[in-house]
Amino acid sequence: WTKLQPHLGVGGGYTWVDKIGAGTLNGSFGLSYWINENWGLVAQSTYKHSFEDYLQKHFEHSVSVAFNFGGKDTDGDGIYDKNDACPEVAGLAEFNGCPDSDGDGIEDSKDTCPNQAGLAEFNGCPDSDGDGVPDNTDNCPNTPGLKSLAGCPDADGDGIADGNDNCPNEAGPAANNGCPWPDSDGDGVLDKDDKCPNEAGTVANNGCPEINPTVEVMDTLNEYARTILFDTGKASFKKETDPVLKAMTAIFKEYPQASFIIEGHTDSVGTEKSNQILSERRANAVKDYLVANGISDDRLSAIGYGEARPIDDNKTRAGRTNNRRVEVKLN
User: Rounded CA gap, 59 and 20, in Å?
Assistant: First the structure.
């Protein structure tokens, strides 16, 4: 729209001058000045050429006020440009002439996804899987997921999206790509922390087997050893001793790197020489039982002390019973 507009015109007409009329050929030139889109001033000169000699050829000059009905509608959307917020793009009246390309009720200028019908809560973007994460920010737009994982699912709840989880149905740490750390030897120490991952050990020894038993274990071992019963004057075991020997064997097997000394002791009944021999035979009998039941011979030594190391008074029956014993020591 320009304020100053020139114009030319050619046409025919019929002119009366002092009651004399004749047909004329008209040529006109004018200039319009528009105050606004509707109101303006028009100055015009018209030359009128008469076809009859009795009517003189002449100019006619005029100044007038002009009024435009309606207005300009550049984009043809039925909304005049002066009222159209988007005058060069066809749009809708409810959006002041601006378009809503996807028809979702959100005008394109305010629509983050103008070519995909969506929801107002997501600024016009769709949420195809209904997980509360709009498709434009959803890394898994067709599978319901979590906002914290950009719309992707986490089946095992370990905080790692299934697509990045090597074990999507088994919870595990991110450091192991979503898989649980293995414990190959089942000793309660995870392989990543286990210095002996293929050999069961203890937590205290970083997953490796304890080389030597603790004081408490040795006390238990000797509690068993002191209850070993032999036939009187012999190195053969009484029947009721079998469970004791089995329990001792199990403890020895828990410490495959440790070496032990089996000691035999007697009371003072009989000669010193016979008691020495008897203690050695009984110590070796225990050793032989352990070897026969899977304990390496290299780990065991047997020694007899006879009556030389009593732990109680040999003058009493109870004292002598206590002195007839087997003890286990670490080598």
Answer: 16
